[in-house]
């Protein structure tokens, strides 16, 4: 994107709310010369979507704009590191953005194509983790290298398995659905169909990884990492760091059901009054979106030998739900998700198996049209919830859903208007109509989490409807209605 003052102010507000750098943004103060950015350039080069380096903000003073004395020299120095310190070199584009008279240098680092990753600095490959750069493990390097070719781990042979290791009920339903959906499969015997669909290997009695994972009686006997862990994560300092820690095993249909039961147990429920006057349970997030994201994590996870010991994880925090899986996207970028043509199955055979596999209630694991992310986005929009945030690091992928505040998320309104956090920008404009407020006061008066207030304020700043004043500490930063003209 092209950066202007409003867009950069919105990003600064996001960094302040986050309390530090992020997976895709690195901030440097840059006093007195060029900072050493080789490892960060390398880490961003190894990320599918690259990242941003912003020079001229003081993180120690709540990201106050302090500026760069010589922007052109700073850009030249960063470009030199990108060309000479990183092997192969990474591409960097620059913009200088003024904020209150301070010149801020924004450097966009492009991710390298899969065929060129991983890049290295002094022989070491780096990757981003939260707000820092770390040396890749040998296991992660193998994951990156495996992405150079189309993954086929789902049809790898699982030694020691036979057709007897499949769940008979799951197989019966799968075979019936597969026959009903294909004229060519209708007349095939069971074993031929299982081979053609990639459940059994073509030349032996063994199961494939995908067949075992989707239809096995107990896949974890042969591959313990094909499981899920879930936990509620309390704030730092709490006596109980993890609550309701659960480990789920079994084939994909069972894992999907168990994850949804866990989410129903731990997400907040409120009551909404329907048009008929009756009260109905109203969850803080739509079940359809949650089910789709869990199914995606299970079906699209990396199944290669380099991901042994890595599981699908669900973490429920005070302000967000994070669903993550080993492995990144294949054949599609993060920004294409949810758009027409923005679909690609990492595990083609497993994906096909899961379109005919069903849960205990008879629901297909996935619908098979590749439009699941679009449905997630539409479901969240209809719920008046924030859109999903996707993080693709190549070696892992995460879907993040922001949670509404506990005291307003699922509050019912007799007029059917929905919870108080609907249309957050409109509520914020009303809140600051009588005078400037800081972000915490805005969040409290509008019934929003700090994250939701941050995102809504970012939209209003970009639209020019709100101005940000101060900038030398979160308590001194206020937001007001922009002056006309």
Question: Explain this structure to me?
Answer:
- The protein is of the alpha+beta class and 485 residues long.
- 32% of the residues lie in helices and 21% in strands.
- The protein has 15 helices and 22 strands.
- It has helices at residues 5-18, 38-45, 71-84, 138-146, 168-181, 183-186, 190-196, 209-215, 252-266, 287-300, 348-356, 372-382, 424-431, 439-446, 450-462, and strands spanning 25-28, 51-55, 57-58, 64-65, 92-99, 102-109, 120-121, 124-129, 132-135, 157-158, 207-208, 228-233, 242-248, 269-273, 279-283, 312-316, 320-326, 389-392, 396-402, 437-438, 466-469, 478-481.
- The strands form seven sheets. A six-stranded mixed β-sheet has the order 13-12-16-17-19-18, with helices on one face.
- Helix 13 (424-431) crosses helix 14 (439-446).
- The radius of gyration is 25 Å and the shape is globular.
- The model is unreliable at 408-422 (pLDDT under 50).
Tags for this entry?
alpha+beta, four-stranded mixed sheet, 485 residues, six-stranded mixed sheet, 15 helices
Write the layout of secondary structure elements.
Blueprint: H1 5-18, E1 25-28, H2 38-45, E2 51-55, E3 57-58, E4 64-65, H3 71-84, E5 92-99, E6 102-109, E7 120-121, E8 124-129, E9 132-135, H4 138-146, E10 157-158, H5 168-181, H6 183-186, H7 190-196, E11 207-208, H8 209-215, E12 228-233, E13 242-248, H9 252-266, E14 269-273, E15 279-283, H10 287-300, E16 312-316, E17 320-326, H11 348-356, H12 372-382, E18 389-392, E19 396-402, H13 424-431, E20 437-438, H14 439-446, H15 450-462, E21 466-469, E22 478-481
Parallel strand pairs: 1-2, 12-16
Antiparallel strand pairs: 2-6, 3-4, 5-6, 7-8, 8-9, 10-11, 12-13, 14-15, 16-17, 17-19, 18-19, 20-22, 21-22
